[in-house]
Amino acid sequence: MVRKVTLFLLGFAFAALSNSVIAGEGVGRMAFSTEIVDREPVNNVDILSAVNNRIYFFTELLDLNGQTVTHRWIYDGQVMAEVPFNVGSNRWRVWSSKTLVPAWNGDWVVEVVNAN
Asked: Which residue in 113, 98, 103, 70 sits closest to 7, CA to CA?
């Protein structure tokens, strides 16, 4: 399973976010958000201002109990972070985050991957 979501950072002032999803099983929902409360994203971010440069990537995983799933943050073709999660039930919600800096303008991709 591989799911990809693209984040395009346009300068430090804002980021445009879009869901470019590649087919894969096991992902019910995914969203970029400025905050996670009670295991849920508080918003679905389309614009990220310079005031709030921390972005969260939320994923609801379905029917992947017992597997390890990873959020892979990629910038300009280079893996910047990999955050693994051990899935503990058939419906499992996870999130990871990045603090974006002005030097990281350009295309970002978040991949959701498992062992397959």
From this structure: 98
